[in-house]
Amino acid sequence: MINDAEMLTYIMQSAEMGCQGIKDVRAAKCGAAMDSVLCGQMVRYGKIYSTAGNMLRSLGEEVHHVSPMAKTMARISANRDLRRDPSGSHIAEMMIKGNTMGVNKMAQHLRDYDRTDPNITLLAKKMLDVEQAHINEMRSFL
């Protein structure tokens, strides 16, 4: 079972990696329409990130960010993919893959969470909804 602190840490780190992924692909100059959608997605991730961090601190827990190595590896992978194909449809595909992975992992964590705090469960479900909304938004760019 996953406890409250572990679940909040996972939510926060997922949102942090979502922001990182968006930053990485925005550097490819994906066009005004996609850039606008990506900025909106980053705002949503930022709100979830802040909420999870605040909830962790209110529990007296230490906030653990994604490791710099994990961020660097994600950036290298994104840059490699973007060098291969910098088109908007490929960027949308990359983002959909990342969001799909996020949906799957969040669903697993939610299933394993002991659900002692309904606010944490609600935040996890919100993260799932956000990831799914991001997938739907990116489909229009395929």
Please characterize this protein's 3D structure.
The chain is mostly helical and 142 residues long. It has one domain: Ferritin (Up-down Bundle), CATH 1.20.1260.10. The protein is 80% helix and 0% strand. It has helices at residues 4-26, 32-58, 68-84, 88-112, 118-139. The mean pLDDT is 96.
List the helices and strands and how they pair.
Layout: H1 4-26, H2 32-58, H3 68-84, H4 88-112, H5 118-139
Spell out the key features of this protein.
single chain; 142 residues; mainly alpha; Ferritin; 5 helices; 80% helix; elongated
Could you tell me the number of beta strands? 0
CATH topology: Ferritin
Look at the helices and sheets and give the structural class: mainly alpha
CATH superfamily: Ferritin, core subunit, four-helix bundle
Q: How far is it from the N-terminal to the C-terminal residue, by CA? A: 38 Å
Over all CA atoms, what is the radius of gyration? Answer: 15 Å
Helix % is over 70%
The largest β sheet comes out as: none
CATH architecture label: Up-down Bundle
> Helix count?
5
Instruction: Output the helix-strand order.
Output: HHHHH
CATH class, anyone?
Answer: Mainly Alpha
Overall mean pLDDT score? 96
Categorize the overall geometry: elongated
| Domain unit count | 1
Low-confidence stretches: none
Beta content: under 5%
